[in-house]
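Wait, mind explaining this?

_____
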Amino acid sequence: MRGLGDRDPLRCGVTGLRFARSAQWVPVPLSKELTMSQPQYPLDFQVDFEPTLGEKITGKNNRIEVVSGTAGTWLLRLRVLEKRIEPGTQILWERYNIQLAHSLQTADAQRRDYVTAERTGNAPIEVDHSGEKAITLTVRDTPLLKGDEVIVRIGDRREGSVGSEVFWTATRGRFALTLIEGDERRSAAPDVIVDNVHHPRPACIRLLGPSVAMPGEHFHLSLVIFDRNRNVIEDFHGSLELDYPHGSTGLPGIVHFGPADRGAKVLSHVTLSAPGVYRIRARLTGGDLVGASNPIVCHEQPAVHIYWGDLHAHGWGDCSMLLMHDRTEKMEPADRHRQGRLYGRFDYGAPGAMAMTNEQAERQETWQAYLDAFDRHDEPGRYVPFMAMEMHPGPDGDRTLIFREKTGIPIDMREPTWRVYEQYGNRDDAMLEVHIGGAPPYYEGFRPENEQLVEVCSAFANAEWLMQKCLREGFRFAVTGASDLHVGLMGAPRAVEPFRGRFGSNMGFNARDSGHGSGPVGAIMAPELTREALWASLRERHTYATSGDRIFVSLDAGGHTMGDIAELPERFDIDLTVHGQDTIERIDLIVGEYLAVSLSPNMMDAQWHIDFDRATMPPGTWFYFRVKQANNEWAWTAPVWFADGETRGDAAREWPAWNHTQAPAPDRGAKIEQHLADLEAYLEREGDREHFGEITPIGIVSESVGAAARFISMSTKHGYPVTIRWFYEFEIPKLRVDWGYDFFGPIDCWRGPTG
């Protein structure tokens, strides 16, 4: 048995949520207004939103509901209730659990996220902003009197700005006001709850089953309807038509969705009658939207199964970015597991706090919530939870600390790297994952004895460069894909998340490029779905990573598989089998630091036999495969290491580097030319055009995250090629920039070509 078997996957929720204000927690019943007596506040606080398209949305009763991803202008309306507020007083606005911009700005009325403030009588009020988390208003010259009003506009469009946008993911956020008078601080008004809800139009049908099944074995399929930002459309009411191959039983022809389904259904008691590769399609009744399942490979006696999950994702517990700060239902640790099981059909998961406070009582409360969630979801044979938290030791790079079992609260996340490895680096029940989100490792300051798990793909970027770096350091490790999830849904497919990219962070972008808010996953090959079997396979490096699609990969290299330290002869056979969720565009064999050979199947199923002769291959002590699908989804196997450790091969031949890419042919069609004009105008307006040389159109592409116009250019700072994707279907088009001409992470996404 795998996953959730035939049972509805625990639509567990919490009975309440808690909002944090400093160290104070206030219980709030879900779906109810505040019932406690309210103190007298100096300000009345109302939040409205003016969409670029559509009618104004007016907040009521300290709440506002807006559609995620909508472009427009936020209006924060403050009315004075006290007799007077003296000059020099500051009013601090802060946001929690949502994000409005990469960086709020007051410098240029033409650029996005422009902030202005006006007060009654046009008397001066000073506006300051701290990145994107806060705005400070300072009363100048004359006091604010009772009845006076202040209006703050975030994304003020009156002078040509495109405005701002509602946070991309459906979630519950909060706006808070604090009055600062000298050294004294007090709450200025009741907090305003901001409910970001899904877009009503379906944009993605996702159908997931197991990667491996036996004839006659019962399993379940997860069927979910997502919007443009990969939020579940919880009020979807309609039907899907299923198309499944001969030999599939237990599936209806039509699946009806009602209010109780909340956009997701589990189809139980599905069986396959004979060995083969099965894919199931679902079409929206009366529409063109189609989704296809992952390939389900039916074997008589499979040696191993493939189990999917995420070992680096976050829920409640964030004292730094304040994005996972409030313990809302979505951030609740138990609900994170539920999301992964239902929406991602996860077999295992390890949601954890991203940035726990160093205050002991709060640390213990946070850790206990994850322990309780562990107990609630621990079902061997169906789902295996792990404990995890992120460590931020400083310049040596972040790590995710993963535990096999429940354990006591770990050391503080800010402990130096040497202490983290001293404490956990050689324990059998703990594992440290190298990742690329906040800070990747560079090993100038601290080099551990070993690295056990490397995140080759995350929501920030693909990072094969990090895998190669660790290989050159001599480490032998498992690989994984992980979402580094912040506020998105655990288990959701990849989405285009504004400001999540890493190119702009070291290029001085005014509007940082986009990343992927969810998606990447790790595949563990194990004989059964138990904690012991999964952990043993992780330690033995029997893993591979994908950017999100459940690509089936099987490798036999002279009787060895991915992750092995193999005693191999000079010449041996390799058999690679790949079954894609989309057309397989290319498979690359990487030997050492070189691209040895490529295959272009251009079909969904590929088998590749290689007569591997070390004398005619590139020099190297390891090899691995990477897979690219036509929808820009990727997979990487863990390396196979030659046990002799000798760098043998054809050193006389000039081999292409592992990260070799070629410029694609340009496309000058009318549609792409219009997108080029829009992109150029956006970069000029936002002040980022100088980072790029001539921009050349390549074409319109259909990716798993949506349609995009693709361009190539050169970084003017580094003289290195870049690829730009312009996701034009959103109200404010989203920008994604990658180094090189392809997307597997050919160079350091942090340091660039000099890294």
User: Anything to note?
Assistant: The longest strand covers residues 571-591. Residues 1-37 have pLDDT under 50 and may be disordered.
